[in-house]
Amino acid sequence: MSVTYNERERMFRLDTPRTTYLLCVTGGRRLVGHVYYGPTVPDDNMGYLLGMGEEPVSPGMDARDLAGFFDTFPFEYPAFGGGDFREPCLKVRGEWGVGNCALVYESHAIFPGKPALSGLPACFGETEDCDTLELVCRDEVTGLRVRLFYTAFAHMDAICRSVRVENGAPSALTLERALSACLDLPGEDMDVITLYGSWGRERTVERRRLSHGKQSAESWRGISSHQYSPSLILCEHDANQDRGLAWGMTFVYSGNFLAQAELDQNGRVRAVLGIHPEGFSWRLEPGESFQTPEVILACSEEGLGGMSRAFHDVMRRHLIRGQNKHRPSLVNSWESFYFNFNTDRLLELGREAARQGVELLVLDDGWFGNREDDNSSLGDWRVNEKKLPGGLRRLGEELNGMGVKLGIWMEPEMVSPDSDLYRAHPDYALTVPGRPYTLSRNQLVLDMTRAEVRQAVYSQIYEVLSTAPIDYLKWDMNRQLTDVYTPSLPPERQGEAMHRYMLGVYELQEQLTADFPHLLLENCSAGGARFDAGMLYYGPQIWTSDDAEAADRLKIQEGAALVYPFSAMGAHVAACPSHTNGRVTPFETRGRVSLPGCFGYELDLNKLTEAEKAMIPAQLAEYRDYGPVFRDGDYYRLASYAQNGDFDAFMAVTKDRSRAVIITVQVLCRPNVPPRALKVRGLEERTLYRDRTTGVVRSGLGWMRGGILVEPKMGDFLSTLTVLERVEKEA
Ligand code: DGJ
Fold first, then answer.
1. 544 CA from centroid of ligand 1 (Å)
2. Per DSSP, what are the bridge partners of residue 219?
3. Is 65 labeled as catalytic in the residue annotation?
4. Kind and range of the H or E element at 205?
5. Which residues of the chain have pLDDT under 50?
6. Rounded to two decimals, what is the model's pTM?
7. pLDDT reported for residue 426
8. What spacing in Å lies between the alpha carbon of 509 and ligand 1's midpoint?
9. What local confidence, expressed as pLDDT, does residue 729 receive?
C-alpha cells in the first residue's frame, strides 16, 4: 500500500519508491499538521516534527496564546482568519461577511486508484498504480467540509494533491480563495527556483536564496503565461543536478495561478500553489462543492535532475493521454510563408517534404475567412477558397497522395472585431459593459464560460475536421484575458469568470479529443504562454516558444525540461537568419537542438541550400532513432549554457539502460581551452557500452567516471551527438 494510517500515532503515510510524506492529526483540537516530506523514512512516530513535543499533543488547551501557536503550526491546509498569518489556502466568506475558517479533522478514507476530477485535467491511475487518501476536515461554525485528496504513486516519486470544498451550511458561502496545496517545510539553507520569461524568452530558470518574506510566481492573465510558469521548486542550497534534496510543485491547470514560498520568522518555509486569489471568488449554494485543480509534487534526493525525472515519469504515464501517439516530423508554413500562400505554394512545399521524408505539413494561420494579416476573420472558420481552391479537402488529398499528412492551425478561443461571428454576436466577446474593449493582436477573447459560444465555435471546428483529411491540429491562443465580464453571471459572481473560462476551454478540448481520437493535438499560446500540465492532459505536445533559434532554444528547453518531458515540447529547425533574433546558426546544430522534442521544420524547405537539403535525411533518421530516447527515457542535464554562457550538454538514457544519447553544443568558442571530459549519467555500472561512432567500448562506470571527451572546435554553435549502446556482455 502506498497510503497507510497508523491509528496510535494518528499518522498518515504516503510512500512512493523513494520518498515518504507524513501528515498527522493532533490530539485535542484535531488539527491536521504536515510532518514530513522527503527521502523514505520507515517510522511513523515522527509527530515530534510538528514542534509540539515528543508526541502529537493538543495545542494550547490553555488558550492564552492560541494565535501565536496557530502562526507556527505547520498546517496541511491553512485557513484564513484564526491567527496563522502566513499565506492561507482557504478563505470563505459566510453569513457575517468575514473570511474566517478553522478546519479540524473529521474522517478519512484510503482506497486504491485515483478518482478523476470532474471537468478538470488531472493525473489518472489504476488500482495497481496508486492509492488515494481522502481526508475530510470541517469548519464547525459554517458547516463547510473540505476534502483533501492525496494520491501516492507506487512506481514513481510523485504525489498528487487537490481539494474539494463543500458547502454544508444552510445558506450560501463564497470562496475567496481555494488553493490546491500547501507544503510547510523546514526552510533554512534553501533555494527557490521559478521559471520566468516573456514572449520568445519563456521559462528562464531563476534560482535564488530563499529569504524572509514572500517569493512568488503568478499569473492573473487568464493563462498560465509567458511571464511565469505554474511551478515552484525548493531545494537545498547546495543541491545540484545530481545531489541534494529538491521538492517541486507543478499545477495541472492553465489559467491564473499563485505559486509562492515564504520563509517565516521561525525558519520554516510555506509553499503554496493554486488558483490565484486575485479577482477570484466562487459562490457555493448549500450542498454545492468546488473542486480545485490538482498539484503534482515531486521530491528527490538526486538533486534537481531526480526531481525532473520524477515529474517526467508521472506526466508521461499518468497525465498525458496522447503520450503514445506517433509524433510525426513536420514542416510548418508559418515562418515559411506567414499569410502569403496558396494551394500551389503549399503543394510545392509538400512535394519537397515528401521527397525528404517529412511526414506532415502544418498549414498555419491564414487559411480561413478573409485573413490576409492578423486584422480579421478569427471566428470565421471557413476556408478561403480564393487562396485554397477546392478547400482543405483538396489540399489534404493531394498531400496524402504524396505521402504527406495535413495538419492545420486554429485559434478557437478568439474573435476578430472584423469577422462575421463578431458582427452577428458582439456579445460573444469578453468586454465590460460601458467600457471600450482592449485589443491585443487586433483580437478579442470569446466568452468561453457560455455554452452557446463554445457551441458556435465547436460546430465550425467539427465541420472543418470532419470534411477534410486532417491529422493534426495546432490550437493557438494569442492573447491574455482583459475586460473579463460575462453576462452569464450576476455581478456578485463575476469572480468565477476566469475559472469558468478555463473549464469551458477544457470542455471543448475534451469534446475534440473524444470526437477525433486520431487527431494529434498540439497546444500553443503565442509560443509557450500556456505551456503547463493542464494542457498536456488534452494534447501531448505544446509549441514551446516562437523563438526557435537554436542557442535561445537551448535555454528555453532547459527551463521547460526542469518540469516537463521533452515529449511535450514542439521543437523545430527554424529559418536562418533567425526570424526572432537574426542569429545565424548551422543547420546541423538546429537539428540537434530540435531532436529531443517533437521535431519539425519551421521554414520553406525549397529555400534551403543543396547542402542543407542533403542533411535532412540524416536529421530525420536521428529523430526517428534517437528522438524516442529523449521522449520516453531518463533525462540528465550535463552542462548549462544558460549558466556558464558558452557550452550546453544534455542526454537521455532509455528506461532499460541499453542506449544513451548525448548532445553537446559549443555555443561560443573560447580560445585555448582543453577538451572537456563530460561525465555520462544513468548507465548500468558494470555493463559495457560502445560509442557508436568511434567503436570505443567501456563499462558504464568508465563512461560515468571518465566521461566522453568533447574537443573544442573553431567556431560558434557547433554540436556533437554521441550514442552509447549496450554491448550484450557483462564487464
Ligand atoms: C503564434 C504561434 O506561436 C505561431 O507559431 C503561429 O502559429 C502564429 N501564432 C500564427 O498566428
1. 11
2. 257
3. no
4. strand 204-209
5. 54-57, 731
6. 0.97
7. 98
8. 19
9. 66
> Cell numbers 499565506 correspond to what residue?
87
Q: How far is the CA of 575 from the centre of ligand 1 (A)?
A: 15
pLDDT given for residue 494 in this prediction: 98
Amino acid at 694: T
Residue 410 CA, chain-centre distance (Å), reads 21
pLDDT given for residue 54 in this prediction: 40
Q: The domain 3-318: what is its CATH number?
A: 2.70.98.60
Q: Which of 157, 476, 547, 552 is catalytic?
A: 476
Strands 598-602 and 569-574: parallel
Contact, 529 vs 223, CB < 8 A? yes
Domain coordinates of the chain in residue numbers? 3-318, 330-543, 638-726
**Ligand 1 atom with least separation from CA of 546:** 3
CATH class of 330-543: alpha beta
* Residue 605, C-beta contacts closer than 8 angstroms, at least 6 positions apart: 331, 336, 349, 352, 353, 356, 358, 613, 616
Conformation bin of residue 74: beta by default, left when phi > 0, alpha when psi is -120 to 50:
beta
476 counts as catalytic: yes
Cα–Cα distance, 399 to 388 (Å, whole number): 13
CB 193 within 8 A of CB 215: no
Instruction: Give me the catalytic one of 184, 532, 546, 648.
Output: 546
Residue 62 pLDDT? 53
| Torsion angle of C-alpha atoms 478, 482, 487, 493, degrees rounded to 10 | 120
Please determine whether the domains at 3-318 and 330-543 fall in the same fold group of CATH.
no
pLDDT score, position 1: 82
Which of 2.60.40.1180, 2.40.50.140, 3.40.50.11540, 3.30.1370.10 is the CATH number of 638-726? 2.60.40.1180
- Which residue puts its alpha carbon closest to atom 9 of ligand 1? 526
